[in-house]
Write a structure and sequence with these properties.
Oligomer: single chain
Strand content: 15-25%
Number of domains: 2
Largest sheet: 8 strands, mixed
CATH class of the largest domain: Alpha Beta
CATH architecture of the largest domain: 2-Layer Sandwich
CATH topology of the largest domain: Chitobiase, domain 2
Distance between the termini: 58 Å
Helix content: 25-40%
Radius of gyration: 27 Å
Number of strands: 17
CATH superfamily of the largest domain: Chitobiase/beta-hexosaminidase domain 2-like
Shape: elongated
Length: about 400
Amino acid sequence: MIQFWALRSPTTPDVSSVRSQLSNILGSVQFRNSKRSQLLLRFVVEGALDGRQEELKERTIGVQVFGRDPVYDTAEDAIVRNAAAEVRKRLAQYYLEPDHTAGLRIELPVGSYVPVFSGDAPPAEPQVVAAPPKIGRSVVLAAAALVLVAAVTLLWQQRRTATSEVDAFWAPLLSRGEVVQICVGQPTRLYHFVGPRHDDLDRLIQDHTNPAKTSIAPGELASNAGDFLYMRDAFAAARIASWVQSRSGRYQMISVSKTTYSQLRRSPMVAVGAFDNPWALRVTSDLRFVFGNKTIDGDVYHCVTDRQNPDAANWKVARSVGTATTQDYAIVTRALDPSTERTVISVAGIENYGTLAAGEFVTVPEYLGPALLQMPKDWRKKNIQIVLGTRIIEGTPGPPQVLATYSW
């Protein structure tokens, strides 16, 4: 006699079933080697089961799970957001395995630290019902059930989520296990005094009350720009390095003055900065969105220009000395560089406020993921650009806002 598993109606999973599934997940190949992912997933699941949803917030998790100071700056320290993104990726990998596609699911929605439980726990005893008397009909029903299961599995595997889209964005740089070169822009006009008068000249410059003037010979000035980085560019590069490391990738942070063409032929690159990073400017120079200068009513501006609308001047920052910057703009680019035959990611702001905001944008799935979900489904195989804007309050850039996207 042919037998079938009877379908069970969906019910809310009980606590014991969730804890059993949590144990299975934490012991899986996806989680067993990631202590950080284990800690975060266990904390949020147990918190939800105990009715402590109000505690499942970024700062609380940072303090109770990762030992951060209660007043730590969540904008600068993204450990919780990065760990949550890693958990979402590992959960997706876990449920893609054939043995895990059915039954109870534990998920961590993007933008939240409260887990969601769905599906059924496996029944303790399989229910068996007799097959209909006609064997032919039974075979047809069995085949139909198999087709349905296969279709549901395929649809699940092809489901687009914010985390899966972010992983796809970084995949060209991380998929082959190569060392990622994080190329950081540098100041172009930093000098120091040299020669026998260098101490006297230093004192003269620092004494703002002394109106005396003196001539400086060309040989008494030497550039030391190659020894420094802009603070916000350095913060953006550090964010990206932490992100690459969280995805089990390797990186080398290097200044633009130390970056050579031969290095870029051998390794994938993230270029940080715009006007202080010639490599980033070269990557974007022939694309739709580019960096440039405009003179408007006698004032000179750095700007982001749309080649399809070159007369527009919506995204600009004044270059006037002493002008307070309240708004900055950035371009995030992922494109194949034909000169190196490598995919390059450029994270570049007009000023370094925009660079810092762009560095946050590409490393926080809650920012980058929704933007990618709005793009055409085949964007993964294409070059892409995203224009960002950020408001600057008391010298700190606010959350990045997507202003335009393009893929080709």
